[in-house]
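User: These chains co-purify. Model them together.
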Amino acid sequence: MKARVLAKTDVLAIVDLLRKQGYEVLAPFCGRGRDTYFDTVTDANRDRIQLHLPNPYYPPKRFVFPHIERLMKAERSNGDLRIEPTYEAPKRAIFGIRSCDVAGIYHLDRFFLGREFSDIYYEKRRRNLLLVNLVCTDPERDIGKECFCMCADTGPAARDHFDLQLMDLGDEFMAVAGTPSGEALLANSAFRKGTEEHVAKRRQILEHLRTHFESTMTSWFSAAVRCVSQGKVTEKTWEEIGQRCLECGGCTYVCPACTCFTVTDRQVSAGEVERVRVWDSCALGGFTRMAGGFNPRRAVHDRRNRRFFRKLSHYFIQRELSMACVGCGRCAAVCHGDIGMPTVVEMIRRATAQAEAR
Amino acid sequence: MAHQLTTCTYCGVGCGLYLETTDNQVIGAYPSVSHPTNQGRICVRGWHVHEIASSPERLKKPLLRKKGELQEVSWDEAFAFVATRLKQLREHYGPDSIAFLNSPRCSNEDAYLLQKFARAVIGTNNVDQGSSVFCNNSIDVLLEMTGVPAASTSVADLGESDVIVVDGVDLARRLPTIGGAVIRAKLRGARLIVIGTRRHRVAESADLFLQIRPGTEVTLYGAMAKVILDRGLANLAFIKTRCRNYEDFLRLVREYDLLQAAEVCGVSAEMIERAAVTYASARAACVLYSTSMEARSRETIRAVVNLVLLTGKLGRPGAGILALNEQNNLQGVCDLGMLPDRLPGYQPVTDSAARARLEALWKAELPAAPGLRAASLLTNGHNRTVKALWMCHYDPASAAGVEEARGLFEDFKLVVSQQLFITDAARYADVVLPTTAYGEEQVSFTSTERRIQLAQKVVEPVSGLMPVWQQLTRVASLLGANWNYASAAEVMDEIGQAVPFYSGASYENLAREYGRQWPCTKDQPLGTRYLFADSNGSKFNFAPVAKPPRVSTAAEYPFQLFFGSSLYYWTQDVLVRHSETLKREYRILWLDYPDGFVEINSEDAKGLGLRDGQKITLRTTAGSAEATARVTSEVRSGTVFVPYFLREVEKKILPGIGDRSQLVPVRVEKVAA
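Assistant: Joint model of the two components:
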């Protein structure tokens, strides 16, 4: 590892550099109370960028896979139909993206680009996106009580899939490049060569951080993968889970690794129609209902277990060579009925333990 | 890009959410983690709110009917036409020939100025809001019994309750954020009692689910009160110091009988007893009921509030009444006087001192006679005294349960409609004034927990579009009124002068945190999380409720049919219809049952040899009707549920029986294929 360091006061120099290179830089900011979000950096807000803060709730996946996006336009004029795809691929850098979200974007890469068909809309955005990862090191501000990246094996320090990784060592930041684009940034004069002590300090901080994760599911996540993959979770457990689902779709929308969308056409003006794609959710009845009226997942618990099959079943993990859960904990915070991933793993554990005791 | 904290405007919960915008377009929406009401959660409607703002079907120019057709005209022409016609009609037929209806989704500023326009400029009390048929019961009963027509506690305080009672309302479908708060409270150890005929999602989490026969709530609550008294669980100290009318209540409660109630309600005596004891022994218990589409009768609400007073479960964190408003600003439009018999702040229009106070503020003389309710002014047909109708985002289809807009407006000489889209009702208007939408204006709303909150402007409206309050200001000026509001904030400043419990709710104050819960006064600018905390405060009144007579059942009509507006209301909503995902979600039932449906319990269906989707005949003493059966385990065995939009069934069955609130004994027969 070619570690570089830069002074704490110089860290925003990376943002300036990227902006100078023509990137739209998205960085984390504080909203009201504990609310935080990624927003475009401007001259006016540059000094308000926050490095240590609760991970923004609205996941950065929307920069490659927007909540709503236009795919094409169809116009009728003089009896002719003109169809024009609309691509948008701004040159963007996400500054301060957390390790879980880096893993999330990698999962989207595997899904949208990893198999025989590539999604061109995704691809165009992704190719222009640069990721500056920030390791979560502040136990109070960075790590939430729902976080479980330790169990999902995605953090707190990502091992790959970033362009550049930054880690707060106290007075300095350590920087590691993950790609040639990241490597190029290290050429800047703000960076100095890292020493053995820096590397040791990094290891020590990460070791210490292990004790700061509140979520108790650590040892059970992989067991849940096994139970789900082997079909050992009973219908009764899924029903208990389903009865607490209020079908808001929130878990899929905040999930950095959820990929479902729907495509719909709508009239823009007389003679002009646009096709848009919108985030969709397996929690919703209209999502699973077939055109003919048959719904293979009519009961709410059948839809809800779908989410956990998709994320935990070995079949899907093998298909994408990546797991669709990155341990960010957002689904635990967003759920009305408290059936986010940590709780479901716990419910599966309890049901399995009970079954084995019998 | 920009992120702005604002308020979701779908339902009465008033969740805090952020809108993300770029290039004058809303591109995303997500919940605020810190907002005390929703704490990081919103429902499917909130998650898709950004789809509406960008809907291409919005109206952009005013429309005026010329030679029978609605044609685009200039704003000046539209306003001048409206003002001239209003003046003519008022001169010819008097001020009470003009009526104003708004939707319970209108902002506080719009509602306040609309009723001020009616009362101070036109001179009539003909003002009403779209769901008055439902919510007046709760307003009137709460005013009579507690003096405050609103929820006494907060959604967040459900976390402090150790017993929660949900009466009827299907929270998961209608107010999901509150449904979630209830489920999570239960997971943390609170006991959950659900009362109602429908086995809805939240009922699945209940410790005690009393699936009573429809229409037997009064008997149930009366019997619970009796149990509490018999077991010595009444809070006599609270009753003695804070309640009146206890003796009268006591006299009537003695009539109730537990075993008889069990038989009438169709649940075991043991369940009723356990519910009563659980509620009465709670440290802090909260009761939830709906004031809107799933509203209860006056007697039922009285019976509920009697239980609250009897046990003194009021005025502490987690203890109280959550009267739930299903539309986002039902509370606000009522607070600000969109009621034909009450002025802003709920003073009766007949109260001359209250009128005098507003007359001084508004510098106009106010009418003293109560106005007409929406339902009566819309349905009295050719003999109607009302000649002109002003509808502000009012939709008779979803508001009054009126299915067919056609015919409804024919006899009016002037129909003005302020709308975002061409709705069924707007199609029959003489003038359509398009308005700004959510996200294009800064206005305020008051949620079901009395939280006055700002909805922020995040994008610039299409050129020329303006908020309702501004349009009212323009027309009022043409009619000679001296209205000079430069912003919605200035309207709120005046509201603060008119309504004492809004007096501290300046925009500056509202913008500071997450709105303020009223009473928000100059002395108490931070608002009030729960009411009645002051033990030396005003007195409560028991309302004696007589035991309802027993309804006899005839063997040849074994099922009880009841009408309800629950469950499918949102399909009618104009915003839902313009959001791709929501339209799909709320349309499933229409697609599955294109001719509509009546609901019948799965076990009953088995007994009748009936499959889902089959045609059935409903036979009563008065007539019969055919309908499609939707077989579901959600409805109680022995009942047939008819959603309100199935007018055919209603037309054929109701004549000779009564109104829709009545239970109808029916026989269910399979139609031979």
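The mean pLDDT of chain B is 89.
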